[in-house]
Amino acid sequence: MALTLDALNAASSGDFVELLDGTYEHSPWIAERAAAARPYLTLAALKVALARVVREASIDEQLALIRAHPELAGKAAVAGVLTAESTNEQHKAGLTACTPEEFATLQRLNADYNAKFGFPFILAVRGPRGTGLTRQEIISTFERRLRAHPDLERAECLRQIHRIAEIRLADKFGAEPKLGQQLWDWAAELARHSDDAEWLTCLYGTPAHTAVAEQLMAWMRDSGFDDVCRDAVGNVVGLYRGQGEQRLLTGSHYDTVRRAGRFDGRLGVLAPLLAVRELHRTGKRLPFGIEVIAFAEEEGQRFAATFLASSALAGSFDPAWLDQLDADGTTLRAAMQAAGLPGTLDAIAALKRDPARYLGFVEVHIEQGPVLNSLDLPLGIVTSINGSRRYTGEVVGLASHAGTTPMGQRRDAAAAVAELILFVEQRAAAAAPDVVGTVGMLDVPSGSINVIPGRCRFSLDLRATTDAARDALDADVRAKLHEICERRGLSFSLTPTMAASAAPSHPAWQARWEAAVTALGLPLHHLPSGAGHDAMKLHERLPQAMLFVRGGNGGISHNPLESVTVEDAELAISAMLTLLQLS
After folding, report:
1. Mean pLDDT of 436-442
2. What's the pTM value of the predicted model, to 2 decimals?
3. CATH number, span 387-500
């Protein structure tokens, strides 16, 4: 018989610990400390509380928890003395059916890992879907994490332990995140359509891009949307009619970067799609319509016209974009027409939305960062999307012989840029947590090991939660570059490539996200978005607010390691359903 929250909340402290036995391997102290925080409104609240106990424990206690876990396919598994929970997990991942070569590899990795870190490698082998990682996925993860810093790896082990506990709790409570599983499976299905045979890549206007659009339209129709279409820039638009004429706009993008993950953008399309499916299944209509848009382009990977899809809705599509060329010399207009789109400015201009018809725009998005992951929180409230300025720059000095030019007589362009990089890091850090600065590209043209760099090209990316903070950082960095070059006898050029204003969340819509997260029994955590999103374009026309969803593997995004668990996806869909019915 499945455990219930009512039974857990009503149990004595001793029974509470007994009921949660096996959730954390040989570590009853976690449940003992969490008992005092009852009652728990939801299973999600219980999981957050258990994780908080571990996060607030001493390092020695955390290490003892890690060391309480067995090695994967290790001596305990061979001897048959694993706990029932560990035996089940290793069996589901196929670790009891290793080939001799796989078993030997795992034994070597276990030994190398223990030698480096002093504790066993921990991995939730049932994975983010809950059905089990493959042995190759386990071995690849093992090899990757062997390269980590000890402090980072200890933190990752604890996160993996929380994931193991989450799966065990789901088994105890008989909780199956069916909506989260559907989202995860749909994301996997979309990832089959790729421009690259090995890695997920879905660029604007390609056959893979069109195939994703067609699949999304099919799912929208099957889910009960009243009207479904692909518009003049390739956006997939689904309308679920309401009792009134006004609509709430929501969605995200379905294009990807090269070598992408499955959830950036697409999570924010599939979550409201499934929310509408649930409303349709129960026959519920809201006072307003729900317009879900899968934006055709946000990443700027094939053409430099970043946000071209949401710009069309905001009425800020630049006509000059139609003549932009991709790397193969194809214009954006031609790419549109090849994908079955009209490619005309009149058709694109007709997509501009009338703000009077809309209540606002809300977006769900994977965090693309480590904050929620480090706090063991599944959801976060976005306060603002950072404003940004980007430049390409070049410093020019004098290329001369590395052996014969005295240090005091050099005009080293790369050294000047290195000095600028350190200043950007220090200046942005001094204004933390709301300001960031990055030099992501460096190039010494025709560089040689024995030649002092005479030229150095670089990029500059400056971001902040407010335009004032962004502009102050921008002014200080440009002044420092001027000072460095004056002092070193160098010249420089700095070319602006992008400027985007900050997009603070609308207070009323942010409050609705807060109410939705609170209804799930979760604590509220507010954070800015350092990445750009379609919401920042819609912000030009409509009130907007965003919800972040925790990403796995340290919060990495724009990477094949990008991950979301089915439980976190379920919470995001539940939050969306609550927000819709609060509004």
Report:
1. 94
2. 0.91
3. 3.30.70.360
